[in-house]
Amino acid sequence: MPQQKRIKRKSRKKGKKRKLKRRHAVDKHTHARRRHARTLRHSHKHRIAGEIHTTNALLTQLLKTASSTESKPYHYDKRHHSKDPEYKWFGGSERDQKRKKFREQIPYPDVSFLRPQGEYYPPHQGNFPDWHQLAV
């Protein structure tokens, strides 16, 4: 005997659709916090970019150190007095020579809160009474 095809019939009884539960709170602050977490600044790409910069800096230092010779050794000192932006603005007066000597004795700080006005002006004019003569 051949098999009969079964016909699927739709049920005539329609039930209510269940409402989905909210997975998170809906207040304004929580929504803003969730939206803020999805920005590019907090993504994995930003972290990767930071790691790339760090790796590049370390590789550069390694290359410079490895390629230095005994006659010309490489030594990078980020706290050297020559890195101080104010150091180059000390003039030739006796007062400035004392300042230069003092600055050479102490290490340059890791952080500088001075905001330079440009390449040809000192960071703060009050620190250099004769800055206009130096800027020429």
Characterization of this structure:
- The protein has 136 residues and is mainly α.
- Among the domains are: 28-67; 81-134, no CATH class.
- It is built from four helices and no strands.
- The protein has helices at residues 28-37, 44-67, 94-105, 131-134.
- The longest helix has 24 residues, at 44-67.
- The protein is elongated and about 115 Å long.
- The model has no long low-confidence stretch (mean pLDDT 76).
How are the SSEs placed, and which strands pair?
Elements: H1 28-37, H2 44-67, H3 94-105, H4 131-134
Residue share in helix: 25-40%
> Helix and strand succession?
HHHH
Give the amount of beta strand, in percent. under 5%
Distance between the termini: 111 Å
Radius of gyration: 34 Å
Count of β-strands? 0
Structural class: mainly alpha
Most strands sheet: none
Roughly what is the average pLDDT, rounded to an integer? 76
Q: Count the helices. How many? A: 4
- Uncertain runs are none
User: Which shape, going by the Cα principal axes?
Assistant: elongated
Main traits of this protein?
4 helices, 136 residues, mainly alpha
